[in-house]
Amino acid sequence: MNTMKYKEYIARIEYDNEDRIFVGHLAGIQDIVGFHASTVDELEKAFHEAVDNYLAISHKTGRPVQRPYSGNLMLRVTPEVHAAAATAAKANGKSLNQWASEVLGNASQL
């Protein structure tokens, strides 16, 4: 999946073969914010406009904007996985949080 980033928002990008356009939607929020364009440059501009408009409308109406992901992640794993992860972190000279963040980032290709 292709993504774009602007401000603190990430958009999922897909290509619509039938209409021959790129289509994007903001990820990580419940509000539906979409945009589209024929070229990558136009798509980037449309993405920025969509985010800016979303923020402006939210401000104008007094409705709080939804923020994508706080950065806090709660995981429930088995004690064996917890122990193995803690050991791997220590072996790499990192805290469990640093190690897990790196592993998750690598796994999600960030």
UniProtKB/TrEMBL annotation:
Pfam families: HicB (PF05534). It comes from Endozoicomonas euniceicola. InterPro entries: Ribbon_hlx_hlx, TTHA1013/TTHA0281-like, Uncharacterised_HicB. It comes from the Bacteria. This is Type II toxin-antitoxin system HicB family antitoxin.
